[in-house]
Amino acid sequence: MNMSFISDILKKKNTSALGIDIGSSSIKVVQLKKRGNKAILETYGELSLGPYGGVSVGQSTNLNVEKIIQAVNDLLNEKEVAITTRTCGLAIPFRASLLSVIQMPNVGQKELASMIPIEARKYIPVPISDVTIDWSVIPRSEVVEEVSEENKDKDKDRVKNIDILLVAIHNNIINQYKEVVLKTELDAKFFEIEVFSSIRAILEGVQGPIMILDMGASTTKLYTVDRGLVQNSHIINKGSQDITLNIARVLNISVEEAEVIKRSVGMGKTVDEIDLSETVLVVSDSIFAEANSFLFDFQKKRNKNIKSIFLTGGGSALKGFRDLAAQNFKVEVISADPFEKVETPAFLEEILKVTGPEFTVSVGVALRCLSEL
């Protein structure tokens, strides 16, 4: 006899959710618990992937799926992190995806569903069979504009088309993540591209066009976001590990030693009174120049000014980096604080403000997973 109705009654409802962010240099996890309408931080942790690839802590790696599975299992079973749930969501790296805003006729959802895969071929530089696509209609601005008599015809033409956010993810990446989930016995509810996790974690309620600068180990990702939707994106092939390598070269020390100094000193001076600011600027100036070009291009094409820039990713936690960014961009620069939305122990508040940018994606994933319990 099937007694599943009894097991459902006796089964305790899961109220915890795990957000997992597998980056190129580390894995970050955040576990949240639901209490009423609040998200409570239960635990969080990070595991460097460098040693799994035969390189130093902090360096970028390109691990095979077996090594990733090993690393995820190690973090899940780490006693100090004390993860207690396998219910989770996972972030897909931006580099494994493609985002485009395309225009389509203003027709019904059913017609759009049949038209978009055909139109997508124009924007996706690989066979359509190699990717999984998704899309959503970008809502028009809630601001109602006055339309003069002579512009009414133009306005009628404008509403004949709608903007669509087209998303494509390589199937081989999805299959790799499915294998990780299977072999680590995770209960994954969804995969999502990391930028959407970041938006959920730090931009809820933020008005006007903003830019996210996400500085990782090997790359820096740029996104312009308006009304909560990604408008443009760009990848710069420089990141925080380039700063580490510069420090190692200038001080003639190992990469591992340079990583420790970078994290403790930032743009300050070493114990030997060596000023590292110029060493950092070699990398940061290049990143800021490319980011400014991206920003100006958006403003010119959209005729809108970026109101603020949010810094996220582990590289942006470098001491002095926010002030340096503010000098370069000439607009408000904010260090992301994803834990602001989460109830945390008082004794961790200062630590989480410093480490917060590194956990933006994993917090965003955990928040979505928690909302779907």
Automatic annotation (TrEMBL):
Domain of life, source organism: Bacteria
CDD domains xref list: ASKHA_NBD_PilM (cd24049)
Species annotation: Candidatus Zambryskibacteria bacterium CG10_big_fil_rev_8_21_14_0_10_34_34
Protein name: SHS2 domain-containing protein
